[in-house]
Amino acid sequence: MPTVRPTNTDGRPHAGWRAVPWAIAGLLLAAPWLAMRLTDEVRWTGVDFALAAVLLAGLAALVDVALFRPADRCWRAGALVAAMTGFLLLWGTLAVGLIHDEAHPANLAVAVVLAIAVIGSLLARGESRRLGRVLVATAVAQGLVAALAVALGDTAGALAALAFTGGWSLAALLFRRADARTGLGGSA
């Protein structure tokens, strides 16, 4: 019986691993459903499940692209860091709010940050150099959200926003590294 290695020669996981991000997303979605059966502390509505399903499916799709696209390892790592940063930022903002609480209007600034990341990434069309620039712009926008939180007297929100700034910055550095390694400005 042949031995199945976990990765291809270019570092990408074998196709059999493609189902893993989707399975994890499904398990994460099933967790609150199960918790609702076991305790009255968890109360999700159909809207909660629908929103969570869309967010988890989007994350699974981004992870799928990042892991299975034939690109430089730094490119894939940058894509994973950016996807996780965006997901956690959106999920946390919707759940409890980044600035004060989820109903505070200042949290709409997070939509601007995410729009920069998403629209910029689509326009970059997978090119490392362009993605690096997009994520630098995203990090700057996230830093402005931290400044807004400080101005509104929310120190915890400012610290959380700075943590997300770090995630965007790390992703930008990884894409810059991928660009330097390939020397093509593309995705290798």
Task: Report on this structure.
With 188 residues, this protein is mainly α. It folds into 2 domains: 17-68; 71-188. The protein is 72% helix and 0% strand. The chain is built from 6 helices and no strands. It has helices at residues 19-38, 46-68, 73-95, 108-124, 128-151, 155-182. Helix 1 packs antiparallel against helix 2, helix 3 runs antiparallel to helix 6 (155-182) and helix 4 (108-124) packs antiparallel against helix 5. The chain starts with 18 loop residues before the first helix and ends in a 6-residue tail after the last helix.
| Beta fraction | under 5%
Question: Could you tell me the number of beta strands?
Answer: 0
Q: Span from first to last CA? A: 34 Å
Number of helices, counting only DSSP H or I runs of 4 residues or more: 6
Shape: flat
Average the pLDDT over all residues and give the rounded result. Answer: 86
In sequence order, what are the helices and strands, one letter per element? HHHHHH
Unreliable spans are none
Q: Approximately how much helix is present in the residues?
A: over 70%
Largest sheet: none
Q: Please state the structural category.
A: mainly alpha
Radius of gyration: 18 Å
Q: What number of domains? A: 2
